[in-house]
Amino acid sequence: MITELGHFALILAFLVAIVQTIVPLIGAQKRWQGWMAVAEPAAGAQFALTAVAFGALMWAFVVSDFSLRLVWLNSHSMKPMLYKISGTWGNHEGSMLLWVLIVTLFGAMAAWFGGGLPPTLRARVLAVQGAIGVAFFAFIIFTSNPFLRLDTPPFDGQDLNPLLQDPGLAFHPPFLYLGYVGLSMAFSFAVAALIEGRVDAAWGRWVRPWTLAAWVFLTIGIALGSWWAYYELGWGGFWFWDPVENASFMPWLLAAALLHSAIVVEKREALKSWTILLAILAFGFSLIGTFIVRSGLLTSVHAFANDPERGVWILLIMAFFMGGALMLFSLRAGAMEAKGVFGLVSRESALVVNNLLLAVSCFVVFVGTMWPLVAEMFFDRKLSVGPPFFNAAFTPFMVALGLILPIGAVLPWKRARLLRAMKPFRYVFVLAIAVGGLAFAMQTGRSLIGPIGMFLGAWLVMGVIVELAQRTGRGGDRLGRLMRLPRADWGKAVAHAGLGVTMAGVAGLTAWTVDDIRVAQIGQPWEVGSYELTLNDVQEVRGPNYVSTMGFLTLAQDGRQIAELRPEKRFYPVAQMPTTEAAIDYDLKRDVYVVIGDQQNSGGWTIRTYIKPMTNWIWVGSALMALGGLLSLTDRRFRVAAGAARRGPEPVPAE
Q1: Does residue 335 contact residue 379 with C-beta atoms inside 8 Å?
Q2: Is 520 in contact with 604 (CB distance < 8 Å)?
Q3: Facing residues of 533 across strands?
Q4: How would you write 19-42 as a 3-class SS string?
Q5: CB 641: neighbour CB atoms within 10 A?
Q6: Which of 526, 522, 576, 525 is nearest to 546 (CA)?
Q7: How far out from the chain centre does Cα 523 lie?
Q8: Beta-carbon-side half-sphere exposure of residue 577 (alpha carbons within 13 Å)
Q9: Average pLDDT, 10 consecutive residues per value, the chain (655 residues)
Q10: Residues 6 or more apart in contact with residue 466 via CB below 8 angstroms
Q11: 16 exposed, middle or buried (CB, 10 Å; 0-12, 13-18, 19+)?
Q12: What phi-psi label fits residue 475: left (phi over 0), alpha (psi between -120 and 50 degrees) or beta?
């Protein structure tokens, strides 16, 4: 009964989305207040109905209702409760329902908190958001229905993919989808502005919090996925340039560019066309990511490898929204005349360079991700584009971004003097060079990756300190002025420092990892770097739905035991699938990472050990970037009705 109720609610939400798309759009064009007012209750009703449908599906997973085909394929009665719940979105159909739930959530939030928007703009934004809902409701109902029943319900299910039975993967998709789908609001604002033919400072202020929220969620989701890959897959890396990893990274880069571009629109009413284009492309790359994950055309360790027919549906959705928005952009671009002019050296120019670096780096990732598919389709050649290409092509843009970020953040608007702006940074630059030089002198090899990363990390973090010091002025109550800075300024500082910490962590891990593989005998110690490890025992341990071969090791340094490590090889009988569970001794300076393999004929066990310097700096930096975004999101000007006091007359559509 609950399942049927959920199915019925899903169909009703689809019908409400159609109403939300058509009626407010006509009302905004005709200036009919009653028709425009339909958008707000429709958005709330659409979210409520979708939440009922999603709740019904989750209930089916919780109670192990194997009469539902989706539950039978992705759950098991012996599975822990956390993974029964996460099984709701650990598959194609359920994850698409989560996708639509978040689309309707953002639409409802725009209806509830968009009181400061002009009525016509609000109606059009909600209508475009409703249209996105219509497309994906149709996709779910007609191609990916999660509520299909089985004629003869089995006694038990086929279990969830064991790789997904992990806390990191339980929370990674919801955060990632909040980011992916959150960019739909920026898209809706962009298309609504194109329809009205008007983009101004108030529009920039309205669109920024939605983009910022999406970027924060994307940051958290990407960091959780990277952390999961690091400790769960047993290979010791944090990023492999996998197509699905790139699918989330590309919108993140464009969302970061959009955030900085919207600042220029808000402060100077410049870069209007570019900002609109970025808003379209950011959501477009979210749709491209959806295609990559669900089409089955590109292989990945964590893709939903479904039949290509569903990929065709997503391509049609992408072509409709991206093609329509870009066509509208080409027609309206002339109406987006920029008011603010600025010199070659100015904060606006620095933000333009920032945007170009982020956009080009996104294009590099896109080409590397899609080229194997293009080569196979048009040249009948099977190619593999791996980390060497991405590292060589992508890294220079990030190095350039790190170099200009501190100085660009303090340049005055409109016109600046470069030498004058750089003067406070001269000592910081020397210190950052010294940090990089010290890293180069202390390393055993002659790689430049580590020293350059240390230099950039120090340059960005100390640059943030200089920027904050400049904001407090000279003399008097400098500490008081520092504490009274707007939260948006604090957020920018924390996020930029987080980028520096992440860059240093990535460089340190990449350049200075120590790797050791051997057949270890029980009771015989061996050395890796400055550490001594001993395999004390190997036992078979039973979990709730798996059997584990667990090693018991001690980790010592300078004759003192510092940790006990228990790496595992698990086997899930229902799914007939093994997984590797690495044992990690975490530390801010380094991780000691141990993986156990198979038993050898000699009686020993294959043990792989990594010493990974500065790994946790990556997660700390990611957390700081997300925290910076959250601090900016709580700034007062984002909590009040954006631009309500400056609204002025109703906009008139451009002819």
Answers
A1: no
A2: yes
A3: 526, 555
A4: HHHHHHHHHHHHCCHHHHHCHHHH
A5: 13
A6: 576
A7: 44
A8: 12
A9: 92 97 94 93 97 96 93 89 91 93 96 87 95 96 93 86 81 92 94 88 87 96 92 84 90 96 87 92 93 70 60 90 94 72 86 95 94 82 85 95 93 86 90 94 84 96 92 76 87 96 95 94 94 95 91 95 95 89 94 94 93 95 96 75 43 41
A10: 406, 410, 424, 425, 428
A11: buried
A12: left
Say what angle helices 2-30 and 119-143 make with each other, to 10 degrees.
140
Q: How far apart are CA 448 and CA 510, in angstroms?
A: 11
Angle between helices 39-62 and 119-143 (to 10 degrees): 30
The secondary structure of 603-627, three-state, reads: CCEEEEEEEEECHHHHHHHHHHHHH
Read off the amino acid at residue 55: G
Give the Cα separation of 28 and 36 in Å (integer).
6
Q: How far apart are the first and last CA of the chain?
A: 53
Shortest CA distance to 617 belongs to which of 259, 230, 256, 166?
A: 230
Name the token pair of 261.
């571009």
Three-state DSSP class for 121? helix
Q: Which residue type does 263 have? A: I
Two structure tokens written together for 481: 């002025």
Contacts 24+ apart (CB under 8 A), 301-305: 301/163, 301/233, 301/242, 301/244, 302/163, 302/164, 302/242, 302/244, 303/243, 303/244, 304/91, 304/92, 304/95
C-beta atoms surrounding 611 within 10 Å: 18
Task: Kindly give the residue spans of alpha helices, DSSP state H, lying in 333-346.
Answer: none
**Do residues 138 and 100 lie in contact, with contact meaning Cβ atoms separated by under 8 Å?**
no
Separation between Cα atoms, residue 560 and residue 532, nearest integer Å: 9
Give the SS3 label for residue 517. Answer: strand
Q: DSSP H helical segments within 144-271, as ranges?
A: 167-196, 201-232, 243-268
Separation CA 484–CA 363 (nearest Å): 40
Residue that the structure tokens 């989750």 belong to = 58
Give the pLDDT confidence score for residue 339 in this predicted structure: 67
- Rounded to whole angstroms, what are the CA distances from 335 to 482, 489, 614? 41, 32, 50
In the numeric block, the tokens 């798996």 are attached to 546
Length of the chain measured in residues: 655
As a whole number of angstroms, the distance between CA 270 and CA 340 comes to 5
CB 176 within 8 A of CB 204: no
Distance between CA atoms of residues 543 and 586, nearest Å: 24
Structural contact between residues 187 and 325, judged by C-beta atoms closer than 8 angstroms: yes
